[in-house]
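Pipeline run #58 for the internal structure catalog. This entry was flagged by the ingest filter as a single-chain record with no existing model, so it goes straight to prediction. Upstream metadata was stripped on purpose; only the residue string is passed forward. Reviewer on rotation: M.T. Logging verbosity set to normal.
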Amino acid sequence: TLQGEVVASSPYTLVVPDTHPLAARDAVTLADLEGESFVDLPPGYGSRRIVDDAFAHAGVSRRVLIEVAEISTAAQYVPQGLGLALVPRFAVADSIAGARVVSAEDAVPPFDLSLAWARRRTLSAAAEALVQLIRDALLPGT
């Protein structure tokens, strides 16, 4: 049998062009995003599934215009007006020229990273170090 642990959790953020009406907001709801176009990962990716499920649960439709293969590149399309990006905070640079990052943590469940291992084994020092590296990379300061 396996045991697992959430080793890091990252809230979702919305990246919008500086000129977008939502850029003045501190936070958004999914209802605020009705009718917007998005840059996102292809269907089946973990982050895409979290966001798609949140929209479906809220009964809000959305349109994905551009699909990218790397989560950290989605926000880079936003300043060019190619769509909004709803991504985990760890995937967004602290500042993006031409764009603003708005909280969406109350709109979408966090992106949790979990590790699983055999229940009968204790983690080795190397595995413990890996877990800490992951925590440090996704949640600096913890």
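catalog note: The CA atoms of residues 17 and 81 lie 7 Å apart.
catalog note: The longest helix spans residues 125-138.
status: ready for reviewer M.T.
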